[in-house]
Amino acid sequence: MDRRDFLKSGMAAGTAGVALSGCGGNRPEKDELTDRVIRAMLAMQRASWEQGVTAQALLEWGDPDTVILMAHAAVVRQTEEGRLGVIYGMQGSNDPASNGEPVLAAGGITGDTLYWDASDRMLDYLMNRAPRTREGVLCHFMNSRQVWVDSLYMAPPFLAAAGRYDEAVRQVDGMRSILWDGEKRLFLHQWDDEKQTFPRRVAWGVGNGWAAAGITRVIRHLPPEMETELLRLTGYVRDVVDGCLVHLREDGLFHDIVDDSESFVETNLPQMLAYTLYRGIAMGWLDGAYLGTADRMRRAARDKVDGYGLVRDVCGSPYFDRPGTAAEGQAFFILMEAARRDLLALEP
Fold it and tell me: Tag placement on the chain: N or C end, fewer CB within 10 Å?
């Protein structure tokens, strides 16, 4: 990997300041509620993707010292084949790549080849070793040929951050072609390429949040000369945002299965969509009319934070099948707050 690819990509993403000088584009604003959420997040046990999204949140919030520490922990648990942050033999193939951007940032901040080499190994795994469908779409696990919507967040943004723009877009296109339900205007959760069936044919709320936020992260890394691809990807995000917002509740929250009012009410999708909306408005490819909806979802999420800083009633660890708490729910609170802060900083 050419290190300049990441630094150039970081400029597109608004994180070049972190990579180059150890400070974010905007310093964290003092907010006691956000501080509590961060403290609770850092106290949580984390799987590979949770480590990655937590570090991403702190990268965007502007805490480079903690990002370096989290990147170091992910490198310590890098597997022989290159997957980052893996604990106890977990078989996730794409999830570990969520650590890739923080590890790249740690390399940019410190200049330490430990991080550059680790990111190279993660990239080599995705490009040359990771299991794929017959059409070349990355599979979610090492030991099966399943494609999950979660992967839209885990792998393509790192590929784009590492300068593999064409492959990042190819993966977004491929995953969407498999999982997108055009009638519902929502993503389905899981596809089994070997059995040619959907093990879980539901529009999982957090899964649609992973898709919206993940494609947004890819967009932030792509160079402006990829105009055709940028137009297509921004259209993807608008589609899923609008598909979700049809089902937004009066309280600013969503059901766990977006279009199933019998499923439990959940907090993380509002955070994920608010993050997406703030970033899209700031970059100019989403209309400012979405701002009121983003603020409404943000208020609903902030009302869910308890006295210890736990964001309550997100899809809860460890199985994400009931309301609870989770590192990813904490992280998306921070990502949402960082995106809103950066948007407001653009105002004259």
Answer: C
For tokens 């959420």, the residue is 37
- Residues 104-116: pLDDT tens digits? 999 999 999 999 9
Q: DSSP character for 134?
A: T
Sign of the dihedral through C-alpha 273, 276, 282, 288: negative
* Residue 191 near residue 179 (C-beta atoms within 8 A): yes
Q: What are 4's two structure tokens?
A: 């300049």
- How far apart (Å, rounded) are the C-alpha atoms in residues 153 and 4? 23
First and final C-alpha spacing in the chain: 38
Do 168 and 159 contact (CB within 8 A), yes or no?
Answer: yes
> Each residue of 219-258: pLDDT tens digit?
999 999 999 999 999 999 999 999 999 999 999 999 999 9
Helix axes 100-110, 113-124, angle to 10 degrees: 150
How far lies 148's CA from each of 11, 74, 199, in Å?
Answer: 29, 23, 10
Q: What share of the chain is helix, strand, coil (3-state, %, to 5)?
A: 55, 10, 35
Instruction: Provide the residue ranges of all domains of the chain, joining segments of one domain with +.
Output: 3-345
> Would you say 167 and 97 are in contact if contact means Cβ atoms under 8 Å apart?
no
* CATH of span 3-345: 1.50.10.10
At a CB cut-off of 8 Å and minimum separation 6, what does 139 contact?
A: 93, 94, 130, 131, 132, 133, 145, 146, 147, 193
Is there a contact between 305 and 337 (Cβ–Cβ < 8 Å)? no
Tell me the C-alpha distance between 132 and 94, whole Å: 11
How many angstroms separate the CA atoms of 166 and 170, rounded?
Answer: 6
Which residue in 86, 53, 72 sits closest to 118, CA to CA? 72
CA triple 333-324-62, angle to 5 deg: 20
- Tell me the pLDDT tens digit for each residue of 309-333: 999 999 999 999 999 999 999 999 9
